[in-house]
Each structure stands twice: as C-alpha cells, then as structure tokens.
Design goal:
- There is one protein chain.
- With 143 residues, the protein is of the alpha/beta class.
- It has three helices and eight strands.
C-alpha cells in the first residue's frame, strides 16, 4: 500500500457491556457521545451500536459468550488491561469535559493535569469499569 492510497487512518475501539443500553445512555451523558446507530437484539441485548464523538466513533454491544466474540467486562474480570484515549480540541476543554463526566457519575481516577510531554488530560472509568483518558495531547507521527 502506498502512502497516496491511504485516505484516512481509522482504529475503531469496540467494547462489550453487561448492560449495553445503560452504557449507551452513560457514554452519551457523561462523555458527549451521540447515537449514530443502535441495533437491538432479543431480550434487551444490543447486537451492535455505533456512537460518534465529532468525526470519530466507537462500536459497542452486549457482552456474552458468542462464538465469534466471547467477552467479559472489566467489572466482571475485576480489572482492565487497557483503555481508550480521546483527543479534545483545547486544554480548556479538558476541565469542562471532566466536570461533565463527574456530574454524570463517571469515576474520575486522575484529575486534570498538564504532563511534561504536553497537553492537558484526565482519566475516568465508565459505568462498567472501562478506562478512558481525555486530553488535548495529540501524538504525531514522525515524517
């Protein structure tokens, strides 16, 4: 693949929740996501959902033991092995975003700070224990 054939970079985080309908409501209220598409399955399960935050989005669905995607939530495992970092536009957006998340019930695990490497950021967990970082630091690739 040549550089000219790459039109956009895209890595799409995909999460599974025990209570996916509640998680959708939480992510929209606390972190500012908007519903793009939600496909409901049987018995209140979410087969697939897409939530956008500006031009970016995540996908999510209900956790379970499906053959193609067996999954457990961080809460069910008693911890997590990674997180999602979301770039906000400006340093001042970070503090306001953190206040919104806190007011909506997010657990703030790292208060807003300005690290040596640049930008401003904070950390939170969502309603089922996934780690989220929000900040103005934008990693750039070296040319």
């Amino acid at each position: 693949m040549t550089e000219s054939s790459i039109t956009a970079r895209a890595i799409i985080p995909t999460l599974r929740y025990d209570d996916a309908p509640r998680a959708i409501e939480f992510l929209c209220k606390a972190f500012g996501f908007e519903r793009n598409a939600v496909y409901e399955g049987s018995e209140g399960r979410i087969d697939h959902a897409q939530l956008n935050l500006g031009a970016n989005f995540i996908m999510l669905g209900s956790a379970g033991n499906e053959a193609g995607w067996p999954s457990k939530t961080p809460r069910a495992l008693g911890g997590t092995t990674g997180g999602i970092y979301v770039v906000l536009e400006r340093d001042e957006d970070v503090d306001a975003h953190c206040a919104r998340a806190r007011a909506a019930g997010a657990t703030i695990i790292r208060e807003p700070e300005s690290p040596e490497y640049g930008g401003r950021n904070y950390g939170a967990t969502d309603c089922e224990g996934y780690l989220w970082g929000f900040g103005s630091y934008r990693p750039e690739t070296e040319e």
